[in-house]
Amino acid sequence: MNISRKHLIITLAIFLVLTATLITFFVLKQKIFTIAFYNTPESVQKTIIKATEDFFLAQSKIEGKKTSSINLKTLALSTEQPINKQLTGRNKPDLLICPAGYAANQAINLAQINKAGVSMEHLSQMPSFVADSASIKDKKVFALPLLIDHYELAINRGKDGNPQLLLAGGNPQILMAFVGAIAESQFGLEAAKELILDCQEHKAQDIPLIHEIAKILANAITQGYLPQQALNMNQEELIFYIEKSSPNHVFMPLSFHRLLPFEPLKKYDSHFLPSPKQTIRALTAPVYYGIPLSGKKKEISTLEGLFAQLTSIEGQGFLSQATGLAPTHASAPTPDVQADDVRYWVAATNLPLPALSDASFSTSSELATFASDFRNLVLEYVHSNSR
């Protein structure tokens, strides 16, 4: 009986060792590829994930396998922390998706340190200004344009509209994007670029151009064109007003436009902010980049193949159709005139400007504080106008 028990224990131990060995072998064989998303709309996240899964599955079929040998892992990075602190450590992502701006620049610096650049061939089918928005060093690409959003001015072509401009100004992201778009349209491209740097380094109260823009909005409020509550309106409230009062003008990103019901939107045409005297224009059109972060040979090979698919006419058509955003491929199909117009406008104007909210602030709390100070500044000018 004792011998049988000993044999049983030995057999069980061997079984456990073999099982652990097989599990270890499988885990080691199953390559992990990690994509991180920062400040990226949910529709873009889901679409990039689906496109990547499809690519890995297609590669496995080429290799004669039923399932992919690559395990896709995704991370949603926090906007409450500086991005560079989230891209280091043990669980470093292989690829980052984020909009052009401060966070993207931090990630690009890390990509260059890691020597994670990919082929410039991925830029070959893009309009020149879109391709020029890529980050290139030593003939390698460290930030690849994949999709283009746009802060549009939707104009009601009907005659039953409320003669006002609305925006979700309670959202710091949208409010400060509006400020940046006004800077470009009213004061010019160079002024808009300088404002990005000023907002990185100074408080709202200390920036002369911020005062000028605050005065513009205060005058619009005093004249009844911009309701004061628009400075604090959230996106749900904006949807309600679009449906119920049909404002003549709505400022919003194309990515938000895609979330709105079709019926109230069908009477609106999308434009960019008009400029009374600026002839050289640059649209506030956030580019969503793919930023390679791993310089390892196997990961670079995977990234090259994935980027080739994502920037192909088929891949770009899928990304644009699924998200409603503009493709970066010059000839890829688009879901409608809005996405097609954005691609054309960017191609015909200048390098797309990042949203001021993305370009100047390292965390969402910094952005929220600046936006709050700006609202208070506008209200100060409103009160001085009414005296």
How do the helices and strands line up, and which of them pair or pack?
Elements (H helix, E strand, L loop, with lengths): L1 H28 L1 E7 L4 H21 L7 E7 L18 E5 L2 H12 L14 H5 L2 E3 L2 E9 L2 E6 L5 E5 L5 H16 L1 H13 L6 H15 L12 H11 L1 E7 H4 L4 H4 L2 E4 L15 E6 L4 H14 L2 H11 L2 E2 L9 H12 L7 H4 L4 H22 L2
Parallel strand pairs: 1-2, 1-3, 7-8
Antiparallel strand pairs: 3-10, 4-5, 5-10, 5-11, 6-8, 6-9
Helix pairs in contact: 2-11, 2-12, 5-6, 5-15, 7-15
Structural account:
The chain has 387 residues and is an alpha/beta fold. It is 50% helix and 16% strand. It has 15 helices and 11 strands. The protein has helices spanning 2-29, 42-62, 102-113, 128-132, 172-187, 189-201, 208-222, 235-245, 254-257, 262-265, 297-310, 313-323, 337-348, 356-359, 364-385; strands at residues 31-37, 70-76, 95-99, 135-137, 140-148, 151-156, 162-166, 247-253, 268-271, 287-292, 326-327. Strands 1, 2, 3, 4, 5, 10 and 11 form a 7-stranded mixed beta sheet that branches. A 4-stranded mixed beta sheet has the order 7-8-6-9. Strand 4 and strand 5 (140-148) form a beta hairpin. Helix 2 packs antiparallel against helix 12 (313-323). The longest helix is centred in the first third of the chain and has 28 residues, at 2-29. The chain is globular. The N and C termini lie far apart (102 Å). Residues 21-28 have low confidence and may be disordered.
